[in-house]
Amino acid sequence: MTTSPTHSVTPSQPHSSLRLNPIIKNYLNKLTPWTLPLLLIILWQFSVDVGWLSTKILPSPTAVVQAGIQLAISGELLKNVLTSLSRAVTGFLIGGSIGFILGLLNGLFPLSEKLLDTSVQMLRNIPHLAAIPLVILWFGIGEEAKLFLVSVGVMFPIYLNTFHGIRSIDPGLIEMGKVYGLKPLGLFWQIVIPGALPSVLVGVRFSLGIMWLTLIVAETIATDSGIGYMAMNAREFLQTDVVVFSILMYALLGKVADSFARFLEERWLQWHPNQQLSQV
Amino acid sequence: MITTHTQPKGIDLRIDGLHKTFGHLPVLQNLTLEARPGEFIAIVGRSGCGKSTLLRLITGLELPTQGIIYLDGTPVKRLPPDVRVMFQDPRLLPWQKVDRNVSLGLERSARPKAHLALQQVGLASRAKEYPAVLSGGQRQRVALARALASSPRLLLLDEPLGALDAFTRLEMQQLIEGLWHELQFTVLLITHDVEEAVALADRVVLLEDGQIATDVSINLPRPRSRGSGVFAELVENLRSRVMHHPQSPQSVTRELGYRVA
User: Judging by beta carbons within 10 Å of its beta carbon (0-12, 13-18, 19+), is residue A218 exposed, middle or buried?
Assistant: First the structure.
């Protein structure tokens, strides 16, 4: 009995000389985004060493790192970072809660929306940073002023995105929930909140960006602690390396905040089709 | 001696002079329909004839402008617990896993019933996955399991197979018929597919101009063989009727296993 040869389809191996081990490929993929920044930093250091760039304009990377190390050793860095951080977080919690609750109310109850939405939108269009002189008049130059500014800045993106999240819930799901015996509270926790969550998290990410921006500006209003104080103080003494380091600190903390938001997204939005795709 | 009254597994449905008007638009007019416990009724009609409105009135999601719907002799209250709906789209909660979706609205103690329902539709192995990874047909099967999990006595199917491909549709039809045969609940199947209606139903009802225009009993034995001439002719006649074509004289006079009301 003869067996007919089966025509099998095998994946063809690339015959190029660069047959890379997948592990090496993985490393290369991860490192490639960093090659350009690394190149820029090397170029930066080189420019200062050779004299193209005056240290008065921009100190070298090594000088910035050294300044950072000194601040860390003296304990100043930690103190100022914690102060800034606590201001930011407190402002975020206050403004975020107000925005979230308002968004929920206006999203769920048409009457509430009719009453409040237009007023909220009008307030939103006032750039809160432009109102700083007014804020100083009201709150002085202490912690309250900074917290107020951060809260106001954080409130509106979260309000908008919560409102939008609730309004864009598939009404078919609500109808189905009713038919399958869910009471209003069950509808709220099982359908409304999870349904609005992706939008809310987008609002959170936006708000985090605004939070840092507002904090940086707020910390230039006569302050005696925080990263902004550290930078302003250094400016008085022409310590440009500390100034640059402070900016980098802000950037780093901003990145950390954003990463935290993405972490939340990944945990809470596991079910999302887009997330599923990214895991393939 | 205490005699226990065993409730029949299907609801007795009676619709009496039902009217439903949206604004100035009358959708249902003087609709009267009866379904005995365990009967499988298919409702066919063109788009916009009021089929979905009828279902929503039975579930109590809408209130009739006039007329009463009786379930086991009592007028429908809002969202009667023995009635379940399967919609045209699966309407699964994307953020809950399949088993949680199936047990929606059930108490914790009733969760094993959800697992049993998943087994009945053949998806027990996918219980711990999210709906996003399932195909359209699989999602509709989960939706069917969800409808069955609470042991309904009246199952309302609102064109549930319309979005599926032909093969999946056939499988689902067999699945629905099998489960109905086993569990004996009353079924109201809304479909635009006349062949599906004739294949599955005891009676096919034509909804036209907001009223029952025809009520045809299908007396063919089960399982229905779709290839038989009787079957095909029945489908064709019904289809013609839906599309207002004049029926050929022969088919009206011949005894073909159906009666036109």
Answer: buried
- The predicted pLDDT at position A164 comes to 96
Q: Is the pLDDT of residue B7 over 70?
A: no
Closest approach of B79 to chain A, Cα-based (Å): 6
User: Does B79 touch chain A if contact means CB atoms closer than 8 Å?
Assistant: yes
Smallest Cα distance from A190 to chain B, Å = 9
Across chain A, mean pLDDT equals: 87
For residue range A65-99, what is the model confidence (pLDDT) as tens digits?
998 898 888 888 898 899 999 999 999 999 999 99
When CB atoms are compared, the residue of B61, B96, B132 closest to A273 is B132
The reported pTM is: 0.80
If we measure between CA atoms, which residue out of B232, B165, B158 comes closest to residue B192? B158
Give the nearest partner residue to A179 out of B59, B94, B130, using CB atoms.
B59
Nearest alpha carbon to residue B188 among B15, B29, B21: B15
As a whole number of angstroms, the distance between CA A150 and CA A97 comes to: 13
Q: Is B215 helix (H, G, I), strand (E, B) or coil?
A: strand
Could you give the CA distance from residue B17 to residue B24 in angstroms, rounded to a whole number? 19
CB contact under 8 A, B87 and A191: no
How high is the pLDDT of residue A106?
95
Q: Any CB–CB contact under 8 A between B96 and chain A?
A: yes
